[in-house]
Amino acid sequence: MEPIHEGGSSRADQSEDHGDERRSSLSKVAAGRPAPIEVLDHIKINNTKETPRSTIKSVIHSSNHEEIKFTRRNLKEVEEKLKVAFVQFYQKLRLLKSYSFLNVLAFSKILKKYDKITSRNASKPYMKMVDNSYLGSSDELMKLIQRVEATFIKHFANVALVAIIRARNIFQEEGYKDYMNSVFPLYSLFGFIVLHMTMYAIDIYYWKRYRVNYAFIFGFKQGTELDYRQVLFVGFSIGAFALLCVLGNLDMQADPRTKSYQALTELLPLFLLGALLLVLVLPFNILYRSSRFFFLTCLFHFLAAPLYKVTLPDFFLGDQLTSQVQALRSIQFYICHYVWGDFKQRQNTCGRSEVYNIFIYVVAVIPYLSRLLQERSLEQGYNGVKYFLTILAVCLRTAYGFDKNKNHKFILKVLAGSASVLAAVFCTYWDFVYDWGLLNRTSKNRWLRDKLLVSHKRVYFIAMILNVVLRFAWLQTVLDFEIKFLHTQTVLVVVACLEIIRRGIWNFFRLENEHLNNVGKYRAFKSVPLPFSYDEDDDKDD
Fold first, then answer.
1. Which residues span the membrane (predicted)?
2. 152, 153, 144, 133: which is closest to 93 by C-alpha?
3. How far apart are alpha carbons 331 and 321 in whole angstroms?
């Protein structure tokens, strides 16, 4: 009798047979299959070249089978989408550049921390390795950014944006310091002029609004005084021409086709200044000749003091020039830069000249000295003390800026600070009490004056606070506040602009006080017109 086998054994044998057959078939397939690298030879890629039509269709999400009509609307839509795509791509490239910079900075911080904890000096070789790596040395990202900028400028940007982008590229290069030290002071002169004329136009507007008879006070001929719109027109015209010169200068420098005309590029601010001076002395009856000649007459009387009798327009102009010391120094820089300096290469060598440094003192002192010589009476003599203290403070602050000896610098810092504080306090007191007629405790308007043209009293207190704050803007030059994101020339320009704004505020309240004094003392008119004509020749005939 045969032994009985378990049923599962036969199934197992069958499965083993099937497994062997499957493995043999797979081995046959594997034997006939090419190597993995050879698979690429059996793959076909349909690489159809895209035409402009297919590209536009893909941008505006149009089907390939759908006929497209190239209307202005379609093209405008494509242009806007491409512009947005370029901007987004450019922003991502800038982010990638920032990310790369942050990684290098992180390596530097980590290695410094490591050196500090372990008391080792391992950061230099490691940072050298990082700088030589692809992360620190590759310039492919910058090249791609420049390509995107060039493409965007060529197809989408307007003239102003082109100039701004090129100017930013210039400022990122090593020539940034040369530009700020050589070119920026030249154009800042026009900024001072425009700001001062803007403040004067604002003063005229409020003088008219509050019925201050500024035409009589200044002695303008009837009908020749300029309106605030005309003053703004002149100021903004100067600003527009200066801005065009700045943009032209930057564009000509950045454009490879005009970069060779460097001499012409650097002469643009000189041409503009020469044109302004020519218009100022133009004898023809155009461009407000009476106002130009009135200004030149007052300027001559101011410079020739004390040879001429001083009137209010003369010393009023002198006060304006005391707030334009930085502008006068810019004119001095024009002479040095274009006569003795190498303006073609933007080499600022003026600071190395002893004569130039001496004239920095002289130019700063001239407005205050001329204003001091205008004071003749005893009361005006007290006002002269104000200008004498200011001359002393300006000279000490200038000397402090030049001296590099640490021992002398500390002494000059103390002297300059003390003289400046004394001058600022005295000048502020004179402004409030004598020029503005305020701080009268017995007045019905406490701490102000009896008559006020501005109904809101807080305006006067705000003006006094601003006068004090802006008058102490010179503290930056003595205390050496470090503003890392601003260049030294930029800080000087900002301080000078604050002084011009302070002078504009001072002008309004100074003439308001003068007007009220004239009205109170019946000096509102030079002569009273009679209701009849009187001719001496008629009496002689009779």
1. 183-207, 228-250, 270-288, 293-311, 355-373, 385-402, 414-438, 459-479
2. 144
3. 13
Q: Who contacts 160 (Cβ-Cβ below 8 Å, separation ≥6)? A: 247
Q: Structure tokens of 17?
A: 């047979």
- Residue 249: closest CA among 187, 310, 205: 187
Q: In angstroms, rounded to a whole number, what is the distance separating the alpha carbons of residues 432 and 499?
A: 17
- For the chain, what percentages of helix, strand and coil (3-state, to nearest 5) are there? 75, 0, 25
Q: What is the distance between the alpha carbons of residues 251 and 53, in angstroms, rounded to a whole number?
A: 35
Taking only the tens of pLDDT, the chain with its 542 residues reads 444 444 444 444 444 455 555 555 545 544 555 545 454 455 454 545 555 555 555 655 555 555 555 677 777 787 888 888 888 888 898 898 888 888 888 888 898 888 888 888 888 888 888 888 887 778 888 888 888 887 877 777 665 566 566 666 655 655 677 788 888 999 999 999 999 999 999 999 999 999 999 999 999 988 889 999 999 999 999 999 999 998 888 777 766 666 666 677 888 999 999 999 999 999 998 889 999 999 999 999 998 887 888 889 999 999 999 999 999 999 999 999 888 877 777 777 787 888 898 999 999 999 999 999 887 776 677 888 899 999 999 999 888 888 777 777 888 888 988 999 999 999 999 999 999 999 998 889 989 999 999 999 999 999 999 999 998 887 777 666 667 778 888 889 999 999 999 999 999 999 999 999 988 765 655 555 555 554 544 444 44
Q: What CA–CA distance (Å, rounded) separates 441 from 447?
A: 5
Residue 122 CA to residue 113 CA, distance in Å, equals 11
Tokens standing for 111?
A: 């290695």
